[in-house]
């Protein structure tokens, strides 16, 4: 039932693949208006790491609303904001030995990327950026400028920010030593490369096709930035908040980026919220220098605080995410080994997993076949050649098995 088709711009994308009207959702299941249920391996493109309507977040949200808690607080000090900041400090930053100031840059991932780029320019007094092949950072002009895929610019033309794409990990399949090009260009005054303010990187490229950078590569990048006086921005919008196991995806490399971008699952309830984390010595913002009406989403602060208390008071979620990720990898490896006609390559880290098809168009067909069987998932990668799954981290083992079985059947249906 595609009743809204004539009302909505053609610019929409995900729902085009799923021609039903969704109504309610709980945990890892959605229900449509006809009462059919779907298992969710999409999780709001990574915005629902704790599933739909998690009870431990819903209760405090309803209580907050029922006592007329402030919903829109912008820059005011509010109890909800204060509790979030204190909890974030106590549960996330301090136990990891991290020292960051928190900025609320606006409601979305693109907002935090914009603020990070602007801040890096202000700190360094330089304008240029270095980004990576296949990177994705959002749909605003600055974020698009550092997105390493010109197709994503959607005809928006010349980038606003001067950005030079460098090869991401494995771009040369190991045939060229890491950072050889980058360091040579940076140190060659005549190379024409503008002195960069910052490097912006994802530790696992999500939209780029679930490409995990190796730990050594991330450490090498951090060292290169330090050697050359360049700020390091980690865009953890999709891979943060536990998606790869640890709360921050860069923890695995033991690095401390200068600026960190967080959004998607930070509210825990699918409510818009973003953070820009800034090393205290780099917090050079003046009052009013990065404004925006929707920076104080107090209901999101309430659910975010509840999520940190519920899921990050110990390492249980991290451990179960890593174990579930291993299970998906094992299942994908089995599925790949069964395929006679198409080469399938499993990839990923934690519960960000992909299966790359040597015939790109089959990835979308596999997703469509999965939808017919009641499973939601999407594709990513430059040619949409990767079947991508981002289940809620709270998915039960039974639900995970159910979904993996459907993935196996759907891949077989399009490859045999
Ligand atoms: N950075 C990364 C790494 C992302 O994956 C995304 C969204 N897919 C964004 C930024 C942009 O976030 P938003 O869509 O909330 O603007």
TrEMBL record:
CDD domains: OAT_like. Its cofactor is pyridoxal 5'-phosphate. Its EC number is 2.6.1.76. GO terms for biological process: ectoine biosynthetic process. Keywords: Aminotransferase, Pyridoxal phosphate, Transferase. Pathway: Amine and polyamine biosynthesis; ectoine biosynthesis; L-ectoine from L-aspartate 4-semialdehyde: step 1/3. Signal peptide: none annotated. The keyword DNA-binding does not apply. One of its GO terms (molecular function) is pyridoxal phosphate binding. It comes from the Bacteria. Pfam families: Aminotran_3 (PF00202). PANTHER family: DIAMINOBUTYRATE--2-OXOGLUTARATE AMINOTRANSFERASE, DIAMINOBUTYRATE--2-OXOGLUTARATE TRANSAMINASE. Belongs to the class-III pyridoxal-phosphate-dependent aminotransferase family. This is Diaminobutyrate--2-oxoglutarate transaminase. The lineage of its organism: Bacteria, Bacillati, Actinomycetota, Actinomycetes, Pseudonocardiales.
